[in-house]
Amino acid sequence: MGRAIVEGLLDDPACHVVVLELDGATTAWVADHSAASRIGVVRGDAADVSVAGRAADLAEASGTLTGWVNNAAVFRDASLHDTDPGYVLELIESNLMPAIVGCAVAVGRFLAAGTRGAIVNVSSHQAARPVAGALPYATAKAALEGLTRAAAVDYGPNGIRVNAVSLGSIVTDRLERFLDTKPHGGERMKAELAQLHPLGRPGEAAEVTEAVSFLLGDRAGFITGVVLPVDGGRSVRGADPEAI
Questions:
Q1: CA distance 93 to 87
Q2: 169 CB contacts (<8 Å, ≥6 apart)?
Q3: Is 155 a residue of the active site?
Q4: So where are the chain's domains?
């Protein structure tokens, strides 16, 4: 998902993008990319203020910092009845802290430069409608949406917009690898994923990129504090008793 967002932003020939990534192997594609000269890479933990600061430094070396996307996340299950509450909180923090740090660094740079800026946080439909076994992830995403709204209120007077995209199931390399581990290539699960969305299919990464690019850009200049569903209608679909 992160790579798709980067490549979508690079469609604007005036745009430089800095990638902050924990696993350096996942950025190997940058070297051979047609827009490699407009991509910077910082390796490290997005929850580390100094690492996020290095990413901001690299972005500012190419011009004025105008946007920031918080996309880092992990998914690990934990249940309240058999897991130490402290560990549950650690899992929540592992998803929430990168966004808090990213927002803090971006806001600090926008304020220091006296410029407007936009932040987009990547959330999930599970913030409002969790699935079983996703408690830490769903809790973190709900907090992320609260962070989005609160930061929009606090920094709107400074011309800083903060929004989020709330994703449904999106086809990514990770999802496809997961489905490949299932019987018959995960055909049953693919059909179930399609049924969850009123549009009859999971989303494409490029469709998320379009929404992120819009929220970062000037056309969204009067939009802030919004959690935009990019989920094919999954968040509004209720269970149909006749289909059970």
A1: 10
A2: 175, 193, 196, 197, 202, 203, 231, 232, 234
A3: no
A4: 2-235
Instruction: Render pLDDT for 31-51 as a digit per residue (tens, 0 to 9).
Output: 999 999 999 999 999 999 999
Q: Give the tokens for residue 144.
A: 């992320």
Token pair 């901001």 in the structure block, residue: 56
Query: Out of 1, 101, 127, 137, which one is annotated catalytic?
Result: 137
User: Is there a contact between 17 and 213 (Cβ–Cβ < 8 Å)?
Assistant: no
pTM, two decimals, is 0.93
pLDDT tens profile 50-109: 999 999 999 999 999 999 999 998 888 899 999 999 999 999 999 999 999 999 999 999
pLDDT value at residue 20 = 97
Percentage of the chain beyond pLDDT 90 is 80
Q: How far apart are CA 225 and CA 149, in angstroms?
A: 4
Closest CA to 117 of 76, 77, 63: 63
Q: Report the topology of domain 2-235.
A: Rossmann fold (3.40.50)
Q: What is the CA radius of gyration of the chain?
A: 18
The gap between the terminal CA atoms of the chain, to the nearest Å, is 33
Question: Tokens standing for 117?
Answer: 């800026």
